[in-house]
Input
Amino acid sequence: MRLTILNDNTPSEGFLNDWGWSVLAEGKHRFLFDADTRGEVLANNSKVLEISLQNLDFAVLSHWHYDHYGGFTYIAGLNPGLRLYAPPGGRIEGLSVFEVIDAGEIADGVWTSGALDGFEQAVGVETPSGLVIIVGCSHPGVDRLTKAILEVSGYEKAHFVIGGFHYPSRRTLERLAKMAEFIAPAHCSGGEAKAYVRKKYPEKFMEVRTGSVLEV
Output
C-alpha cells in the first residue's frame, strides 16, 4: 500500500502547506483520510505529486475539526456523491456522509475504531506488511485509538501507526510503542513527542512531512 501525505504541519519545498492533515491511501482500496483545511492545498500538492484525487472508493474523516474537513468541499467536486465515513456531527455538501458510531469493518480489510468518546475515529488497513493505522488528531489518545483498531481487526500488533498524536505524554507513547512496530508522529504530535520517539525508539521512528510518499 502507498500512503501519500498531501498535507502535514511540517512543510516541504515546492508544496503549499498549512496547519492540517490529509493522507491518500492506495492499496486494495483508494481512499482519502482527512482533507486538510483548504482545497487549494490539496489541488496544488496533488498536482506537484502527479496524482489524481478523482476516482476515490470512499473517504474517511477522523473528526469534525476544520483542519481535517476543510478541503472536502473540493473533494466533493471531484467525486460527487462519494461516501464519507465520519463521526456524528456534520455534513459536507456533495458527499454522502455515513455516520460512524461503533467499531467495525467499513470495507474489505479496512476497519474503523468507532467514534471514541463520540467524537473521533481512526482506521486500520490490512497490508502485506501487516496492519497500518491512520489517526487524525488522537484527542481520545493515540494509544486508545490503536487499541480499538487492534481489537476490532483481530491483529495483535500494528505494523505502522501514523498521524497526529495530540501532544501525547511519554506514558502514552510508551504504550503505543508496545503496540506498533513503526511510529510516525505527524500533524499535532509536537516536537517533544517526535524527539522522544526518535531518541527512545530509533528503530521505530519514521519521519513524515508534506509530500512524503511511503510504501507499506
